[in-house]
Amino acid sequence: MHWFSRLGVVLTAVLLAAGCHTPSRNANNPAASPSATPTNLCGDMGGTWDAGSSRCTLSKDGANGAHLEVKATYPVDLVDNPTAGPVLGSSLKKFFADYGNPDTSGSGDANLAHTVFVHSPNTKTVMFQADWYFNSMPHPSGQISTFTFDFGQNKQLQLADLVCPGIDPLKAIPPIARPFVQQALVGSPFKFDQFEPDKAEGELADNYQAWALDGDDLVLYMPAGRGAGGVPPGFITPRIPLIQLSPILREKGCSR
User: Fold this and answer.
1) Is there a contact between 229 and 139 (Cβ–Cβ < 8 Å)?
2) What is the pTM for the complete model shown?
3) Which residue in 25, 6, 16 sits closest to 186, CA to CA?
4) What's the whole-number average pLDDT of the chain?
5) How many structural domains compose the chain?
6) Helical residues (DSSP H) of the chain, grouped into ranges
7) Is the domain of 88 the same as that of 187?
8) Which residues of the chain have pLDDT under 50?
9) Residues 110 and 8 in one domain
10) Which of 99, 127, 157 is the last residue of a domain?
11) How far is residue 171 from each of residues 28, 90, 120, 207, measured CA to CA in Å?
């Protein structure tokens, strides 16, 4: 497929995913989040909870006939969790605050979808995929945000927590990830250097800020936000097997 056709397909998929994306994995998949009764978080954000679609919706009219709708799905059970809840709740509140004022944004809509990934019984990643478009904007925009939690240690994990002490993940991971990034870029006009945070031209890597632990893989979402030239969030999502990273991983015993 020609690269600009591929770019269009990916952009369309990204924008549609936020409106139609399944809130969590299939119920038959062990990575699925269990259902839960929603808290008053949706109401606190000014929205209305729809139990049928598990979606919080804020619909507002502003001055000069402006109208906007902000919609979000989120893992209620993890929002209620004492470890994940404060982090996820803060992110959700910020999303509604940033895009929920028609007097500043004008008419438009913003959508937030989520996926929950499971690495182990105690380790989960929540990925939020946002898109928004208002009539004051030249084109739609989007962002992927990820949050990984170790519920055994009751803490949020940063990328540096995955690797051995003293190792910089933004320097150690790129050489190992390179063949998987190259494979993901086949047919596109981009060079892998643009997706490597340790390279001067690696602006599309976004310093690996969006990542997930999914089973036995480290998944990178690049870029995390809309990149230079309109490259959509998650244009490539290379999956790096953790066994390839084992020499630098803290959970593998730090053999180096």
Assistant:
1) no
2) 0.84
3) 6
4) 85
5) 2
6) 3-20, 41-44, 76-79, 85-99, 102-105, 159-162, 169-184, 242-245
7) no
8) 1-37
9) yes
10) 157
11) 38, 30, 26, 10
Which residue type sits at 161? D
Instruction: Tell me 67's DSSP state.
Output: E
Q: What is the dihedral of CA 47, 52, 53, 59, to 10 degrees?
A: -30
CATH number at residue 75: 3.30.565
Task: Write out the two tokens for 53.
Answer: 């679609």
Q: How many CA atoms within 13 Å lie on the side-chain side of 167?
A: 20
pLDDT digits (tens, 9 = 90+) for 193-203: 999 999 999 99
Q: Do residue 123 and residue 23 come from a single domain? A: yes
Which two three-digit tokens encode residue 106?
């004008």
100-129 tens-digit pLDDT: 888 888 899 999 999 999 999 999 999 999
Residue whose tokens read 């989007």: 142
